[in-house]
Structures are given as structure tokens and as C-alpha cells.
# Entry
Amino acid sequence: MTNNKKYSCIIFIIIVLLTIYFTSDIIFSKTLLKFIIDTTSNQSIQHSEDYIKNHVQEPSDELNAHWLRLIKHYVPLPLESGYGSHKLALLAALLLTAKDGGPVVEMGCGYHSTLLLHQLAVDRQKRYVLSTDTDREWLLKFQNNMSSSLHQFRFINRVSEWNSVGNDRPRWSIAFIDHKPGERRVVDIIRLINMTDLIIVHDSETASYQYERGLQYYPYRYHYTYLSTATDVASRTKATLLSNIKYLLELTINLKVPKQ
Ligand SMILES: *[C@@H]1O[C@H](CO)[C@@H](O)[C@H](O)[C@H]1NC(C)=O
Ligand SMILES: *[C@@H]1O[C@H](CO)[C@@H](O)[C@H](O)[C@H]1NC(C)=O
Ligand SMILES: *[C@@H]1O[C@H](CO)[C@@H](O)[C@H](O)[C@H]1NC(C)=O
# Structure
């Protein structure tokens, strides 16, 4: 063989190999894609939870699908605009802080917040939750049903007892503010600022609570108004977390998640 023929031969072989490589790659990708689509539609809630946490800042149809899936799973649709309007903010915050995020304190129990905290934070994420309320009967409804070493309940008998709520731990991942008397809320928004990564405040369209007096100290804030009862999410230090929660909540507006 002359050198020229040798080279032609080698080039021919390379072309054949490349062709095989690329066509099989396309077949491989198609199979992979089909597999991904199949498992995407069948995957566990856990997978969606992990996906949201790991890809929250990568806009895609897949991210939207996972977020919608979790909303359907944890929050009944259409979204409730009154008592349960904070539920999406709580859901987004819990998902993005998952297991390692740490404990949650709930000031003021309710069917929407206490149940979600129990179902997701306690049962699935194995986080410590402290639920508190000034109404003993109301508190017992939840306590009788859900109390465990991971989910504790505390009855607040006098207003001054709010002063010590949360002091038994150095740091809270999330504090949920929905307690009585109403004028006490802003006091605790200010009091908890150095102990919590994030606060979620219910009824934040209501001027009489004077939330602004407390929220002004929080550099990172989002005011969510998709539902007729507004919710605020605020943090002193967690800029990225706050912006990720904001992103998920804004998605509910862009995706027009059904509401009442
Ligand atoms: C996904 O679920 C559908 C219906 O439940 C089933 O027919 C299909 O085989 C599942 N696909 C995979 C990859 O598990
Ligand atoms: C706890 O309360 C929820 C909501 O009211 C209810 O669905 C559930 O059945 C209760 N569980 C027990 C063990 O009472
Ligand atoms: C929180 O920390 C800041 C700065 O470290 C301090 O100025 C402020 O008084 C603290 N607030 C509370 C309520 O502890």
C-alpha cells in the first residue's frame, strides 16, 4: 500500500467509527430522554423535593413541573386565599431548607400551618418543630394528635410568656408568625431577628399589626400578594434563600396556579 492509500484507509475507518459513535449516541440519548420522561412522571415525591432544592435557580419546564407537583401534593387546590394563604411560602421555605435547615418554631397553630409542618418538616424531613398557642383547647386539638419528641407543643398562658419562646435553642431555621394578641406579633418579629434564618408572617396586608415596625430591620424581604391575604417572608442574613423562595412564589403567579 502506498502512503496515500494508507491514509485514505485510516480516514475511512475513522469516518465509520465516528458515524457509529454518533448514531448510537442519538439512539442512546433518545432512550435516555424517554427514560427520564417516564421516570419524571412516575417518580416519588422525594425526587421532586430534591429537584426543587438542587435546581431552584435553573428555570425550566421540569422545575415548574416538580414545583406544581409538590403544590398539588401538599396544598389543596384551588389555593385557599384566607387562613391558608401562607401555606405556599411555608412549603417553599421548608423544601429549600430541607433536613439540614434546622428546627422550626410556629407561633400560633392552625389547620394549614400545623398540619403542613407535621407532615413535611417532622414526618418527612425529621426536623424539630415547636408549635405554640394561647388557646389551650385549640392547641390540644393538634397536640393530642401529633405530639412526639420531634414535634412539641407549648401552651402560652400569659402574654409575657411569648418572651421566652425560642430561647431554648440558639438558632431556628424558620419562625412562623401568626399568634395572639395581634400587637404581640411585631414584638416577636423584632425579638427573633438574630435567632432565625427566616420568618414567615401571616396576614401581612393588615396595617393594624404594624409589621413594618419590625420588618424594617430585615434586609431581605418578599411581600407575596397573589392571594387576597398577603404573606411576608423575611431574613436578616440569608439573601440567596430569600431570593429562591421569592422565585418559587413568583412562579405560582406566572403559572397561574388556581386560586379561590
Ligand atoms: C409509569 O407509570 C405508568 C402508569 O402508572 C406505567 O404504565 C409506566 O410503566 C410507568 N413507567 C415507568 C418507567 O415506571
Ligand atoms: C390528626 O388530625 C388530622 C387532621 O384533623 C386528621 O386527618 C388525622 O386523621 C388525625 N390523626 C389522628 C391519629 O387523630
Ligand atoms: C441583633 O443583632 C444586631 C447586631 O448584631 C444588634 O444590633 C441588635 O440589637 C440585635 N437585635 C436583637 C433583638 O437581639
In short: Residues 195 and 258 are 35 Å apart (CA to CA).
